[in-house]
Specification:
The chain has 416 residues and is an alpha/beta fold. It has 2 domains: 328 residues, Alpha-Beta Barrel (TIM Barrel); 52 residues, no CATH class. 48% of the residues lie in helices and 8% in strands. It is globular. The structure holds D-glucose and magnesium ion (MG) (2 copies). One magnesium ion (MG) binds next to loops.
């Protein structure tokens, strides 16, 4: 029989095994990275359609304090994570924001991003771009209010995940009209931003669109980051230069794409401004698992890509601590381990970029076999075919680097 653990001894066990996992980074080191902790991730109680909550509620001030202790220097929030729907745009909102500003200041944490909730409240049942003018007028006010909150809290980024922008039944709504209507809401937010920036002498924000392929409607109008890029360039936006994207790793994986390729398309468009980091599985629902727990090799390669392209935007920990983790575990295990996996993978990505074997192989591939008669496909293939074996060699080397074999991790006893 395995030894049982009394309830009073369970936290000590978690602490001891966490320490046994080896060194974690100090809060000082963690703060060097532009990593943000979402209010909604920290306060997620484990509930869903088929799930009752497994954790109790937690207030924003406490979340901010816990994140600060861990060394997460940036905090992000939905409008309704901190202000209930009925209190938005009232004097209560100002009071709550004043309290948040105090908590941020006290803990040395900054708000990097504010986002508007357009998916949870019943008013969004038919989307923020519903047929009814009053729903859309309300949606515009909500997005303008998000811009106001962002200015008040000093956030540089605003994210819009449109949520229910889509439908359950084909043919009921006119997709073109829905896109135009949603564009008017983003336009209103950008207009408001200009207005506030002019009035305060501040600068305008970076407005970032986030796509998700399968939820929370049967069909989504803007299901991928590529769709968002097309929307930005559609001619419907009055300030396309103010609007970029916030891809989420798992949202791209969910529809079967290669997140690296999706990120590259946003990078070459100059629109990769914000990045939601997490993990999960292809063609499944949005499990929002912590970064690197499912696809560490792909994550390593994502970070190689971002490091090589000089991405300097935030990494937003948009994951959901699992239902099996306690309130204590959320701040003891979920957040610190997610940050530390990110930092470790970031460092390993640096090693992969500097690896002499990968560098030499890449240079050789780029240089090719040398000048040749350019119209002869067979000859070109024959001249280069041995070089292409390097593709597999580089892939092997990347796995070795991930596993630490380049640093001397061996299983030499097998040779005995
Ligand atoms: C849900 C989304 C959500 C957004 C958030 C920011 O799947 O990932 O968490 O990132 O609403 O706008
Ligand atoms: Mg997200
Ligand atoms: Mg998600």
């Amino acid at each position: 029989m395995p030894k049982s653990t009394d309830p009073q001894e369970q936290r000590a066990l978690v602490d001891r095994l966490t320490a046994a996992c080896g060194g974690s980074y100090s809060p000082k080191v963690r703060r060097r990275f532009f990593i943000s902790g979402p209010q909604w991730a920290a306060s997620y109680q484990g509930q869903a359609l088929f799930h009752a909550p497994t954790r109790g509620p937690i207030q924003p001030a406490e979340v901010i304090e816990r994140l600060a202790e861990i060394g997460i220097g940036w905090w992000t929030t939905h409008d309704t994570d901190i202000i209930s729907t009925g209190q938005l745009m009232t004097s209560k909102q100002d009071q709550i924001l004043a309290g948040i500003e105090q908590a941020l200041k006290k803990n040395g944490v900054k708000c990097s991003m504010v986002t508007g909730e357009t998916f949870f409240h019943p008013v969004w049942a038919a989307s923020p771009a519903a047929e009814q003018p009053e729903v859309r007028a309300y949606a515009r006010q909500r997005l303008e209010n998000v811009v106001e909150i962002a200015h008040k809290l000093g956030a540089q980024f605003i994210v819009y995940w449109p949520g229910t922008l889509g439908y359950q039944f084909q043919g009921v709504v006119d997709e073109g009209l829905m896109l135009r209507r949603y564009a008017e809401e983003i336009n209103a937010a950008c207009g408001k931003d200009h207005e506030i920036a002019r009035a305060t002498g501040g600068s305008t924000k970076r407005h970032c669109l986030e796509a998700k392929p399968f939820e929370p409607q049967a069909e989504l109008i803007l299901p991928s980051t590529d769709a968002m890029l097309a929307f930005i360039n559609s001619g419907l936006l009055t300030h396309p230069e103010m609007v970029g994207v916030n891809p989420e790793y798992l949202h791209e994986l969910m529809w079967g794409s290669a997140p690296r390729a999706a990120l590259a398309r946003a990078l070459v468009a100059g629109k990769l401004w914000h990045f939601d980091i997490n993990d999960g599985y292809r063609l499944k629902h949005d499990v929002d698992i912590g970064i690197g727990l499912i696809n560490p090799l792909d994550w390593l390669n994502v970070l190689v890509l971002l490091r090589s392209h000089g991405y300097d935007g935030p990494f937003n920990l948009d994951f959901k601590p699992p239902r099996t983790t306690s309130n204590y575990g959320v701040f003891k295990v979920s957040f610190p381990s997610a940050v530390d996996r990110f930092i470790t993978l970031w460092e390993i990505a640096g090693e992969a970029i500097a690896d002499p074997i990968i560098q030499e192989a890449t240079k050789a591939l780029e240089a090719g076999a040398g000048p040749l008669e350019s119209k002869d496909a067979d000859a070109i293939f024959e001249a280069n075919k041995e070089l292409w074996t390097l593709h597999e060699l580089i892939a092997h080397r990347l796995v070795q680097i991930l596993l630490g074999l380049h640093r001397g991790r061996t299983f030499v006893n097998l040779n005995a």
